Give the backbone structure.
Amino acid sequence: QVQLVESGGGLVQAGGSLRLSCAASTSIFSINIMGWYRQFPGKQRELVATIRISGGSTNYADAVKGRFTISRDNAKNTVYLQMNSLKPEDTAVYYCNAIIYREYWGQGTQVTVSS
């Protein structure tokens, strides 16, 4: 069982920045892929960014390319999502995800961008 704990959400003005953190309860070397997803009210969860723990290759949704950066700190078993140039349409609940032999999800953290 892997537990994921997110932090770093909050309220920010448009154009501002936030950094989300996702701490895993196990060594992230045991995890294949970690990522961030977001969910808008009444919508399905959608991919924001993923990172392969081995090798570090990344993948981004078109809507966040050039503004968001996913990274990992192996020593801290933590994955980050640096979000810059935030827009009101980025307002959502952001979830951390990890895939080993099954998917694990964090509890979610609210990001609100005011115009």
